[in-house]
User: Fold this.
Amino acid sequence: MHPRTRTVRPRAVAVAATRDDTLSSVLFASVVLLLLLGMLALAAPARADDSEVGCVTTEWKLLGANHQVCVFAFQDPRIPGVSCFISQAKTGGISGSLGLAEDPSNFSVSCSQTGTIVIPDKLPAKENVFKESTSVFFKATRVTRLWDKERNTLVYLAVSRKIIDGSPYNSVSTVPVRP
Assistant:
């Protein structure tokens, strides 16, 4: 019969193994943190040439940013004589400050003629002209330009889109094209 052998781990080996486990945990946590920061960077608003006009606080928060409504101005990328303004509710608090909150689908759009309007020959009947991310997880406010050729009017429609379910909330603005 063979005597049963038992492996005894010396204390120095056990301490080294614990250090390796701790180092692995720290490296894993660092990789996860870098991935989360990368996701937040990708979720940053993707806006057409816009500028923030200003924000108004709607609710004060003790911790983190206040809830706000912010107004942005942007030019129609194909129609230089049209300027639009979109107001968008922004969620504050700690999650809003960290970029993890989902902004509500509360917005409004107003567009007007600010210069000479020349309609290009091949203007699409429908084209996205503005997009702003309102959530880390695939929610965005979009402004789509519709060309109503019969009435010679540019129609700007703002909607909230989400991959699974969008929102029925919308806002519309029109710019008549005068000869």
Notes: Residues 68 and 90 are 5 Å apart (CA to CA). The radius of gyration is 26 Å.
